[in-house]
């Protein structure tokens, strides 16, 4: 594959946005991760085999045999009206009770929702605020839009409101056009933390005070282990919050069905943007989701998923606590798919990766979750896909790799044992990413 | 719905590209067209009910029941490797025998392919050359990318090479950055014409001489009524031609499966762009297409579609010839879905539309197919979806509307009877669109 620009005869013809595109850390891992001997704590693939595949199969088969004239045909750009109604029911579970189907746009996964919102709002050079770390797919979208990402620090309670306010003030002082805050309030990817109730209120108030648009990306909201779903930001503010949802984690990612809930004027722009991008979302997959919600016990299925992920989370946290060398810290997710781990002082997750692969364990290095190349000492561990035993084995291998690395560096005296809580008065721009010393102790 | 900017509190926050987006002529018709009493010659919906729905339904049901771990899971951004192999077999039917699956990117319909190629190449202000008229969905993509579209005239043999060369020279003189030529060589949407064999050669030679990138958009290539598929431009030049294909017209548009064939360096950019846009195309729909190609008699099905569309084309052309008032001309498609009709001198298809709808017939006014608001005297008639009897009834109604309009205008002496063949020496920029006096005579 010609990678060197001089080997690409079209190299001088690409758009400016194309030059910034680069392969994600996650994709670079794909070939490694698929080897059977490797325990992958890298991918974020849901456990779809826990679905009732026979029932779903015959349901979809009947949709085609019985309703082929609709399911195999073009549909509306905004998405199937029946599905949009059911989406409003789903959002009601998180306190969004005033959404109308006319404000919903069905998308090809919430990834497309992210892309559409960004295209509608962001000009090159505009600033987007995002947690540090942030979802890698969102960073890819912002990069393709030539936005400047400014990270706002988090801690165990999620995004820090004071840090957000400071970022807003600094952007204002610098004359930056802040287009929106992008935030994942529940079971954050990759940080594994959740925005606390008081902070939700604080952030909505800040949005009001600073006239800030908020993109609330919420694919994991129904996957809490210990509690009812938390009330969405959108449930508190229907004018400044644009909400992104997805069936990837509650049903199936292979259908690629997500949605955006936005005020009507924005909704109209989003529909025009999606029509230019894909004409309309696939009809079959939309009908499949609507029918699934209508006829299958989908809430029980979500509970089933939650039990399964809880068990895997427990396996991960227990073995981390039992095996990780001192100085290693990590977050303690109470929902979702991810643990965010900080290596002992001096270690670099990306540099360590070849050794981890040799030891047959894979993770995603933290730098992929920052727009500015920071995050070297972090990694994301996903517990969603492997069985508990594999998770334990993976953590065991990882612990050995880290220990060997520490031996190599012989820097035990440099081990970082302090408080990791990010401080809003820190260095402007990107402040320290989320970690947790609370849960980092050897149990 | 707040349409007035002052009613949209976010009006000052949209990206520059968003301001240019507007509802397409086709979508504006949707509500009208769906009324049962209206004969719609407007939409381009394929006749999917001619598919063996039971067989396709059980095939897809089995894919989910038996292979849910793959079909309901995330897949690769580039698309399923098995499907990409089968896509290469399909392209071989049009003379593309050297394509490798690694050069193929699966897309959410060829619409997404168009969008991806445009995103990878086009900066705001760049020039895109396109036939006049051109596919409305492509114009929407170019507009969203803030490209400047320069139309190149066509005639009954498709794009006119001399006019293309003239456009290239003029752009060169003006210092414009021409990013590519966008062309639909087969059974053009909306013009209904096909690029002749000698012109294919001429255009490939021009591309070589002027170092011009060509986007060959070919959803209808296998739907020729009277002959074997023509040899693709891509079959003649694998370095300067990027090829877009689709299963929307040969199988099902509701699955939204299309593809791009591009040199490896470009392919790499396209994969990064699609990952930022949708992560990956839906797995289920890709497996459905691959399995369909593997196990169903899909070539016979394409023949069946072709017979059906030929019959409808015949119904359209026969009734047009029998009923249209003098001065009305139209193209004579030998494949695909569309007839491009020119009204008698002085009539305006868009202004006439309310009267047509009152008379219960719908079409798409020609102006939607030009980037510059020209094309008032044209309309697109689609014969793909209605039954032959409906088509005849629709043409009858349309003829009456045109006649009434002519009476109203009392401009019979101004009727245009001359030669409509577009001339390359015409006015720079947009020269006269394709029409056909050859087939316009009252039969
Ligand atoms: C935070 C977040 N947003 C969006 C997505 C995209 O999900 P999808 O496009 O499958 O709906 C993901 C997937 O991992 C995610 O973690
Ligand atoms: C010329 C042309 N290109 C592309 C498309 C988009 O097709 P799809 O996205 O369904 O593959 C169409 C659909 O009508 C078309 O006519």
From TrEMBL, chains A, B:
Cofactor entry: pyridoxal 5'-phosphate
A molecular function GO annotation: DNA binding
GO process annotations (BP): alpha-amino acid metabolic process
The keyword DNA-binding is assigned to this record: yes
Record key words, sorted: Aminotransferase, DNA-binding, Pyridoxal phosphate, Transferase
Keyword Cell wall biogenesis/degradation included in the entry's annotation: no
CDD domains (alphabetical): AAT_like
Domain Aminotransferase class I/classII large: 66-398
Subunit structure: Homodimer.
Record family assignment: Belongs to the class-I pyridoxal-phosphate-dependent aminotransferase family.
Record-given protein name: DNA-binding transcriptional regulator, MocR family, contains an aminotransferase domain
Organism name: Geodermatophilus pulveris
Record lineage: Bacteria, Bacillati, Actinomycetota, Actinomycetes, Geodermatophilales
